[in-house]
Design brief:
Largest sheet: none
Low-confidence stretches: none
Number of strands: 0
Number of helices: 4
Distance between the termini: 27 Å
Helix content: 55-70%
Order of helices and strands: HHHH
Mean pLDDT: 88
Length: 132
């Protein structure tokens, strides 16, 4: 994770330099703002990865002498049969569609998003999947 954090932090430096050059050269506010926001997002991701790399053990990607097989194994737990991302996706699609069609569509998307989020968070608190 250490190398990914460094990559994103260097990317953020590049984006910042390009945002300043673009802003001074073009004097166009929308693109300049987008580049500065991209800089902020890149800094947040790079800081998170660098911060997390200090708390976890070094991975195979941090070792220059590692083989591909050294990174094999279990990565984490992923829910194989969850329907909650579908509810969140449909609710999010309706929410973004509300910007184009009308704000009244948010009345239908907000319950879908809340039900999907609630179900995703508490999916393994009861029922047959409680022990996982």
């Amino acid at each position: 994770m250490k190398i990914q954090g460094k990559m994103f932090l260097w990317l953020s430096v590049f984006i910042l330099v390009m945002a300043v050059i673009y802003g001074l050269w073009s004097k166009e506010p929308a693109g300049t703002t987008a580049l500065f926001l991209a800089f902020g997002l890149s800094v947040m991701i790079g800081y998170y990865l660098a911060f997390t790399a200090r708390r976890v053990d070094a991975g195979a990607q941090d070792d220059k002498e590692a083989d591909v097989a050294d990174d094999a194994g279990e990565i984490g737990f992923f829910s194989p049969h969850s329907w909650q991302p579908l509810a969140l996706g449909i609710g999010g699609a309706f929410a973004f569609l509300a910007i184009a069609i009308g704000w009244w569509l948010l009345y239908f998307s907000a319950p879908l998003i809340l039900v999907g989020l609630w179900g995703w968070v508490f999916e393994y608190y009861r029922g047959e999947n409680r022990t996982q």
